[in-house]
Fold these 3 entries.
Entry 1:
Amino acid sequence: MITQMGNIKIEIQRRKIKNMNIYIKPPKGDVLVTVPMRISDEEVFRFLKKKEQWILKNHEKMKNQKTFQQKEISIEQRKWLENKIIEYAMKWEPVMGVHCTGFMIRNMKTRWGSCSIHSKKIRINLQLAAKPEECIEYVLVHELCHLLEPSHNERFYYFMDLYLPDWENRKKKLNV
């Protein structure tokens, strides 16, 4: 089923799930709402009305988010990236007093890295293989800081400043 919220098209899919979920998908901010089979259309529309401001805000945010140019990364570049991640993890984990349970490298459209707080796994964008080494270190430290503080709040930036005082310069180089 498809519905509209202003000029935003919303796709609604019924699934065998327990809760309603909203996904804002890159790169254009397409909205997908997954709904349990037992919930009526009326309940779905009440839910959407309640979440309207959140949907509008996050749709706009995703639309304006820069997506990465996907460059062809060679096997050698990928191996180099893997080695750098291991090298920096071995350097920073003992210093920061954290331990990540695993790393995954994959092409990501809108992020350089992400961290799953519960599983303590870190995902790194394959496109980092085409960036300067100091940018890889920045992304890894950033994701490891999330093991200390999940949110991008004052405490998180305190840790970034503590462990990598020049992180802002590295971030600028990364996003050039």
Note: The first strand starts at residue 2 and ends at 5.
Entry 2:
Amino acid sequence: MKKTYEIVDIKNLLFVFDIENTTDVERERLIVEKNVNDSRQLKELFDTVLRPEFYEYTDAEQESLINTVEHFLDRNDNFDLVFDRMTTYFDEEITDRSSFMRLLLECLTKYRDETGCG
């Protein structure tokens, strides 16, 4: 049976950056301070904010998220369904969504490897 990939899974993962997720003032401040178009700063942001969130997923969920991001990157998706329906704390617009997602994939893979899965 062929796996069905849902782009909403990526949006759900990135909810930690959404303005609707207003539970942590310190996290909000940290997100605003980072330049999401600078790969070094974005990686730091992922490591600080997204890594703990990703660790809450089961091994199977982590693997599925990685495969989902990879799938949509392979399809050259523009990720409009992720970003156009989300208002983030990012201080500026993401100029290259594919680069953002490639870095996300790299970080998720690294986080999974850190847990000894995969």
Note: Residues 97-114 form the longest helix (18 residues).
Entry 3:
Amino acid sequence: MYELFFEEFNKKVPITAEEQEQIKHYLTPKKLRRKQYLLQEGDVCKFIAFVEKGALRAYSVDENFTENIIQFGLEGWTISDLYSFLTEEPAVYNIDALEDSELVLISKSAHEEMLQTIPKYETYTRLNITGAYLAMQRRITTIISSTAEERYQDFINLYPHIAQRVPQHMIASYIGLTPETLSRIRKKLSSGK
């Protein structure tokens, strides 16, 4: 069950078979059906989820009941409401499965214990948080300084695998567009104008 988790871990921080067995004791497998919630707004996020198989999304819902997607999570990625996880305050995001999914969960207590007792886990966590911060900074810069067409092109270039697996209205939400605007952009790009 933990094959991809350890494959990704080893890409960032090589570990021995013994260290892998030690870490395994802290991990919890979880399966979600399509449309099933992993986290609902208002609950405290008690885990970080690594996606072994499937696709998830993290999103908020505004006062007009519009979904605002802030993150996708596909195979090899982690997904969580990190603020809620770290502060133990209620989550502001919902996380649900876009496909039947298999996850590896790391609870708050397991996370804290591994940070203290497994130095390579601390390094792995630091690298993940740094990568997430850089991705968030790039996304913010793109949203505030790019045209709608540039945002879509940037998304397609960075995440072609996501574009093939999620509905267009979710891509529109992620890049801050209405589905209608995205449809016009896609039509314009396909006609070569």
Note: Residues 3-145 form a domain with the Jelly Rolls fold (CATH 2.60.120.10).
